[in-house]
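About this split. The held-out portion is used to measure sequence recovery: a designer receives only the C-alpha cells and must propose an amino acid at every position. Recovery is the fraction of positions where the proposal matches the reference. Here is one held-out target exactly as it appears in the evaluation file.
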C-alpha cells in the first residue's frame, strides 16, 4: 500500500513540476524605447506584429507590420528564458548614457495584467540577461 501511494504521489508531483508555465509571448506586449535629446525610437511588439515610432510626441501613426514566423519563433525562445521579476534588478553593463555617449534605453513588458520594467541602460548595450531579446527587437527597427 505504501508503494502504491508513493508511486501515485511521485506521478502527481512530477507532473506539477513539469507543467510550470513559461512566459507566453502571445499574451504579452513588449515595448522598447530609446531616446536622447535628438533621437527617439519606440518599438512595440504585440501578437506577432511590430510597430516602430520615431516621433516622441506620438503624432505619427506607426503601421503595424507582421513578424515573420522565423523571427517570431526566435522572439518566443528569447522571451521564454527571461525571468520577468528580475528585470528591475538588472544592472547596465555600461554607463555611456550618463554623458550623452548613448541613448537611454528601457524595456517594458506587460504580461498577465502586470508590468515589468528594466532600469535604464545604454541603447546598444543591454544587460546580458536580456541581450538576445533586445538585439532581436532592435532588428525590426532597422528593417524600416
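Reference sequence for scoring:
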Amino acid at each position: 500500500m505504501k508503494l502504491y501511494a508513493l508511486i501515485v504521489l511521485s506521478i502527481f508531483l512530477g507532473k506539477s513540476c513539469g507543467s510550470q508555465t513559461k512566459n507566453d509571448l502571445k499574451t504579452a506586449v513588449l515595448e522598447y524605447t530609446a531616446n536622447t535629446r535628438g533621437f527617439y525610437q519606440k518599438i512595440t511588439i504585440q501578437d506577432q506584429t511590430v510597430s516602430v515610432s520615431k516621433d516622441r510626441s506620438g503624432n505619427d501613426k506607426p503601421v503595424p507590420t507582421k513578424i515573420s514566423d522565423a523571427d517570431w519563433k526566435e522572439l518566443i525562445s528569447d522571451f521564454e528564458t527571461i525571468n520577468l521579476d528580475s528585470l528591475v534588478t538588472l544592472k547596465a553593463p555600461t554607463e555611456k548614457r550618463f554623458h550623452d555617449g548613448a541613448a537611454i534605453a528601457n524595456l517594458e513588458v506587460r504580461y498577465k495584467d502586470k508590468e515589468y520594467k528594466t532600469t535604464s541602460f545604454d541603447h546598444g548595450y543591454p544587460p546580458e540577461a536580456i541581450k538576445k531579446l533586445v538585439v532581436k527587437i532592435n532588428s525590426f527597427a532597422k528593417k524600416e
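Annotator remark: The helical segments are 2-18, 69-80, 131-142.
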